[in-house]
Amino acid sequence: MRILIAPDKFAGTLTAVEAAEAIAAGWSRHAPDDELELVPMADGGPGFVDVLHATLGGELLAVTVTGPHREPTPATILVVGDTAYVESAQACGLALTGASGAGSATTYGVGELVLAAADAGARRVVVGLGGSGSNDGGAGFLAALGATADRPLDQGGAALTGITSLTVPASPEVEIVAASDVDSPLTGLFGATKVYGPQKGLTEDQLPALDGALQDLAAAAGPSGRRLALEAGAGAAGGLGYGLLVAGARRQPGLALLADAVGLLAKARRADLVVTGEGAFDFSSRAGKVPYGVADVAARAARPCVVLAGRVDVGAREMRALGVESAYALVDVVGEERALADPAGSLAALAERVARSWSPRRGGE
Fold this sequence. Notes:
This protein is an alpha/beta fold and 365 residues long. Helices cover 40% and strands 19% of the residues. Strands 3-4-5-6-9-10 form a 6-stranded mixed β-sheet, sandwiched between helices. It has a 5-stranded parallel β-sheet with strand order 2-1-11-12-13, with helices on both faces. Strands 7-8 form a two-stranded antiparallel ribbon. Helix 1 packs across helix 17 (343-358), helix 8 packs across helix 9 and helix 12 (264-270) crosses helix 13. The longest helix is centred in the C-terminal third of the chain and has 16 residues, at 343-358. It starts with a strand and ends in a 7-residue tail after the last helix. The mean pLDDT is 93.
């Protein structure tokens, strides 16, 4: 059989690349003659650059940018032809903030990444959005590009309160693409602060003031700025999506962009079975998460898709609605303690068991 292995990261335990390798190792123990193609996936958040490099190759450029709390932070730019890929989480991610200080965290380093990519000769820069620890509406990003205002733009969202003027310079002479599956507006009940702020350590008492600061930012940008604040994706990555839109970026769903870049549909058509996975497979997986996107590609290729996950919290009916034939949970096979203690080994064990069902040996062994 030909198996396409295209998992997301298992958050907190395995990167997407590590997950794909573990699945392949376990599968090969049962079916060593199967042809395995590993295509780790991401939706624009942490791991975006790594999974693209694993599949596309290209040149990795090491740079140092301003971190969320203005500390020097290492980051990587992937250059493939005339396109550069950068990951916003490397400059303002939750892993850097430790889910604290979101009100003062800046996205300045993301702007530095875009400028560095342009300096390296890129004509198109794709910015993966997700996993952010910031909530500044992209003000820091704009400041790095040369924007000015009557409030500091590089001190986080809280410092924007009362801003009345914002001057945005001409965008760099590159095409900027915001890769994100989040379709939230900048502000309001379903905006960046109210929906995602608590995940970044913001308290209920802090949310109204920060949401108001982002409303001030949009108003300071004028009529076009207020309009862009309502666009789908403006609320992505603590409003960084908004800053990118103000700078002239166009938004593209992150998973679809990555799937197109790696030729996932063509790879699925060559396979007999598509295997994907993530840490927790539940009905929220429909909201732009990797397994749903991979299952959709598998359906377009008329191939079955199965999910391997840390936990599976959907029933058969919901599973079918997500386009998945079957889903298998690590905790059901090895238990939660072992799954956390040895995630790669546990995932390999699960994959070996799944292979027995989907790739039986000759003679029914």
